[in-house]
Amino acid sequence: MEFAKLHGLGNDFLVSSLSRTGGADRSLASLAVDICDRHLGVGADGIVFYEPTVGDSDAEISALIFNADGSKAEMSGNGIRCLAAFLLLSGQFSATVLRIRTVSGIKIFSLKDKTGNVYVFDSSMGRPITEPKLVPVRLDSAPSPIVNHALAVGSEVVRVTICSMGNPHCSTFWQDLEHAPVDALGPQLERHVAFPNRTNVEFIQVMDRHRIRVKFWERGVGRTLASGTGGSAAATASILNGFAESPITIETELGNLVAVWDLQGELMLTGPAEFICKGTYATRAK
Length: 286
Description:
alpha+beta; 8-stranded mixed β-barrel; 2 domains; 16% helix; Diaminopimelate Epimerase, Chain A, domain 1; 17 strands
C-alpha cells in the first residue's frame, strides 16, 4: 500500500488513497493499528484514507480518519490539513482552496503560504458545539454549556469545560502547565463514564488575553505533540471562561496555531503541515 507521511507540529499522520486498500471499515481499522505501530509499522498518531468525491458539488475529496488504536475519528484538524498538503504536493489538485468532506461535515482549507515542504492553511473547523447531548456528554444537573464544571474523577474533582469540534473535547486549566498531570489524568478523562464516545483532553495554561499554551491527550492515541481540533477546543474553552479573546495564539511543543472565533460562526484555525516522506507499506502477516 502506498502512503505518505506528514505532520502538523509533530502530530503525525499517514495519508493513503482509499482505492488502494480495497477494505471495509473493519479492515481499515485493523490496517490503521498495524501501520501506525511505531515499532512494527510506519508509525503515526493516525491515518487518513481519502478518495475523490463523485457527484458531490460541495466537496472535492472525502476522508476517513482512524486513530492509532483503530478507532474512527470524526474529525482531525491536523490530519485533514496534512491531507490537504499532500493533495497539493502530489499534484492531484492545483487549486489553493480544498473542500474536504469528513464524518463531521465539510471542512475548507485555504492555502496561505508554502515554504519548501511546509504548507500553511487557514481552515474552517466548524462552529464549536456546546449542547451536552450533541457533544455527547452525560452529566446530571450540568449546565449548558458545560463551563468550569466540577467533575468527579476518582477521588478528586477536576474543573472542566466541554465542547465538540466534530469530536468530543474536555478542556482543563492549570497555573503551571509543566506540572499538569497529562499522563495520569488524560486517560482517566478520556474514558470517563460521562463520555459515551470517549473524549480528547486539553491541558491549558493561559499566558495572556491572546495567548495560551496547551498539552494534549488524544482519544485513541494518548499524548500527542499537537492537535488541530484540540487547539480549537482549548481556544473555545478559554473564550467561554472569559480567560482570553480572539484571536488566540495556541502554543504547542513545536510551534503555534492561531484560532479566530467570534462566539457565533465557525472557528477558523491557521496552522502548518509538513511533508516527511512517502513509501510502500507491506501489509503485516497475521
